[in-house]
Structures are given as C-alpha cells and as structure tokens.
Design goal:
Shape of chain A: elongated
Oligomer: homotetramer
Largest interface: A-D, 34 and 34 residues
Order of helices and strands of chain A: HHEEHEEEE
Largest sheet of chain A: 6 strands, antiparallel
Strand content of chain A: 35-45%
Number of strands of chain A: 6
C-alpha cells in the first residue's frame, strides 16, 4: 500500500492529446528551454529538457528554475489530460524538493495526477537524469493545478 | 520510469527499529492521538491513526493538523531508519496536500525515503483511509528531515 | 517594497466574526488542544495555543503537528473573514517551515490573507512563542484555502 | 505582532556583497533571463526580471518557472549575505504560490531571510509587478537554503 491508488483515468476530453500539444506549442518558454513532449497518456505527461549551459546556476548545474519549469509544465499538462474540453489549466502552487545536482545530458520530468477534482487537480512530478548511466532522481514536485473554462481568445 | 528509483536501503544503524520504537514511545503526541506503528523497514515507516471525534474540524472530519501529525512522524521515522546510530531526526519543513475529506474508521500514513543525504533526508508520505471499503488516498506530504547527532539527554 | 501590499480588506460578510466563532466552536480539535481565539479582523486571525506535555515530540517540544494545527486553523479562519456569507473554507494544502524548537509557555499563530480570490485564498501564518521573554518566530506556514458554498447541514 | 521579528542581521562575511555579485555573475540563467540585481543588504536581496515574450506560458504571461527562477535566486543570495566566508548556498526546496498572472513590464523579487541557522536558512520572497501602475503581488515563495563550505573550484 505504499503506492497511491491510481485516479480514474478516463479522459473527459477525447481530444486531450491534441489539446495538450496545441497548448504546449503556445508556451514560448518550452521552446526557449528546448523542452519537448516525450509521453502523453491520461493522467500522465513526460517532458524532456536537454542540458544547456545558458540555464545554469553558479556551479554549472541546471538552475532550479529550469527544473521547476519542466516539472511545472509536465504537471499542468498531466492535469489537462483529465480536464473537460474547453478548459485551461493554471498552476496554483508548487513545491519542489531538489535531491541531487542537475547535471547530465538531459532530464525527464514525469508528472502524474494524484487526484483530479472538479476544480483542483493535484500532481506529482519526478525529474530524472537521462543519457549515459542510471537515471537519477534529481527533484520531485508536488503541485496544485486549477482547471478553468477557456475564455474567448482572439 | 514514473516511480522513483529506490534509495540504497542498507541501514547504517543495525538497531534502527529499536531506535525508532524508543523515540516513538517518547512522543506523547502519538499516544494522545492513539497513533501506533504498523510497519517499519529500512526507508519506510507506516503509522496508523484511528478516527476520533475530538480531533475534528468543523464538518466532523479529522483536522488537517491530525493528518499532518501522523504523516510528519511517519516521515521522520522513515528517515531515522536510514540514519547513523546516535542521531536524532527533526522536521525541517513539510508540505501537505489534502486530497479528500478525512472521514472513515482510521488512516494509515505510509512514509518512504526519497533520498537520504548526509544531513538532509527527503520523504514522501501518503495517507490512506482504512477500514470498510477501498483505501482512499486522502493526503500526501513531501518533507525534509534533518539528521542531527544526539545531544546528551538526562 | 518588502512587505506585500495589503489585500482589499472589506469583508463581504458583515457577520464574519460570528461565523468564524461559530465554526471554530465546532472544531473539536481546537478545544482538545486548548486553542483559543486571540484576535479577529478582516483578513487576519490570531489563535493561541498553550504548551501542553501531551502534544509533544521526542525531545519535549510541541509536536510539529500541533503547530501545524494552530497555523492551519488560523489561516482558514483568516480566509473566512473575507469570504461571502454561506460559505465554508477548507485547506487545500499548506507548507510549514519549522524555524526553532516549539518550547515555551505558549504560542500565537498570526495568520493573514495574502490574496483573496473568488475560489482560492492564499494565507501566511507566523507562529511565535508567548510568555516570558521576547517572542520568537518558531514556524511559518504558506497555505491555500478553498472557499465553498455551505452544503445543507443537519 | 503580525510581522516576523527581524533576524540578527550582522553579516559574518564583510565581503558579502562582492561574493553575491561574483556568484550571481556565474549564474548563466540570470543573464539569459535578463535578471539584474536591484538591491543587496544583509538578509535581503532584490532581483529584477524584465518581461520577455520568449519565457511565457500559453496565455502570454511569464511562465511560473521564470518567476520561480528569479524568486529562487533572490532567496539564495539573501541567504548568502548572512553566510560565513568561503561558503556556497544551494536551494534545498521551495514552494511558490502564484497569486496573479505574471503580466506587466517587469517583476521584482524581494527576498528576505526569516531565519539564518548554522546549516539551513529559511527565506521568503515576494514577487511584484513593476512599471506603470501600482505594484501587484503576483507570487510568494517560502524556501529552505543550505549553506555549504565552498569546494575547490578550477
């Protein structure tokens, strides 16, 4: 009983994957950081972040803000996979624990929904190193996402 | 890759279980809340909290502070199982997401170590309902515990 | 500019104080811990927790769960002072940083609203020692509270 | 008593400002985001982030990861102002509550130390809009920073 029982994973929006990809494409921050979508399923989204020297902290590791960026977007889109059509998702809050230095060839943020409520969705995202060697868990995020009706966009 | 790779679970203190039980017995808050130890293993501790009407919030559910209490102690003792002899553990901070009302016959807080560092240990604790029916995940806690040398005690 | 600009503090419920007191009286957990209301104003609630040996951790300090209890209720009721009539408040999540051991004659949890939204209210609560000597900040909590219409109660 | 009593603010490192500026200059992530130092004092650092279209989320607001970046670095450097010479600071964990959309000409992250311990420092950072109009509090971060002896660098 150490793993949380999975949420009911039937998506309410049959086009959830297209919606996630469309919204992701509008996040300029993702393109700037070189983040790509690695996996989408109901209640789960993985995003890949390559190591880049221009997003580092003082010791040459990726900055915690870059790690937060990939974990936050993975979490928001994991929440979006279970949201109704014509909704948007916004981060309410997140907490990130940094477990190991963010060094390596790249990183994979694996977010999953812990609970999808009517208004609020709670997600967890684990960030691992990718590339040569064993994956190392470098960070974990616990977050709250709010699901909102989409307002008219131009 | 959605589950974190397990930490190295070799306990540094062969008497870790006795140490946890001895410290737990000194936590008057545990006895007051009726909390008992359900499971101890290297890197993992489960504590059981019975429902009690005198620890409730305004709607008759267990108060979030009671849920935090059981999750926090489970996390601290999970950290203690991997700590060296002659150390004590103290919570640095914790974050609790409340996922469902804390109603039911009782609750089980299942804490595990995500990373055991020299000074800091990061833990996650999931709190489930127990008793009749399917266990429901009602809360999850992500926390940081500091491992300190024991100071002389009378 | 280091202090947050105050929220608009006009209460939407003229009977906010009575509502807070009535809900507080229904929280059995407050009576059990001996917690009392010290101050109520729009956007701010202070609760007092006396030191008690039966709510302690292994070193004789008040358990972090007891501190979380008083900070969480103070935050929820701070949120309630700004909520519309016929609403209830529930903790969504909170994060508690423990800054110093919880020893002393008593503690005062001072919660204030950082932002009161339509659905979500964000609060901060500082917990100080009371009694002899200078007040010491022993913990701080940052939390999210959801405001919900009251459902019919028996 | 609603504001935390200030920490003892005597810096242990007389060259704290130079140390902060030198470390900041090595954070490539700061230069990439266009972040600059606005204020340094013992226990307090303010960093300015200009709005930039390439760091946005799907609605054209600055991404929460960009806001986390500026708040995290401000907090780490606030901690550094009170740390001994020959130490480095690393984020252990942070929690960010997002209070309003990150739109505007720019943002100012105002971080201050709540408690500076031997090993761990706890900080709070408020992020405000800058430019035309009243400053709006858009986010607040509560974080833990670890102070470590500097290891030899090439």
């Amino acid at each position: 009983m150490s793993a949380p029982p999975g949420p009911r994973l039937a998506p309410k929006d049959p086009d959830y994957e297209a919606r996630v990809r469309e919204s992701f494409a509008r996040q300029s921050h993702m393109a700037t950081l070189g983040i790509t979508i690695a996996f989408i399923a109901p209640g789960e989204v993985h995003l890949a972040l390559p190591f880049a020297e221009r997003f580092c902290q003082q010791n040459g590791f990726m900055h915690a803000g870059a790690i937060a960026s990939v974990a936050d977007s993975a979490s928001g889109y994991a929440a979006r996979t279970l949201a109704p059509p014509d909704t948007d998702v916004l981060a309410v809050e997140f907490k990130l624990n940094l477990l190991a230095p963010a060094r390596g060839e790249g990183f994979l943020a694996c977010a999953r929904v812990l609970r999808a409520g009517r208004t609020l969705t709670v997600c967890q995202a684990d960030v691992f190193t990718t590339g040569v060697g064993e994956p190392t868990l470098i960070a974990t995020m616990l977050s709250t996402v709010i699901v909102r009706p989409v307002e008219g966009r131009r």
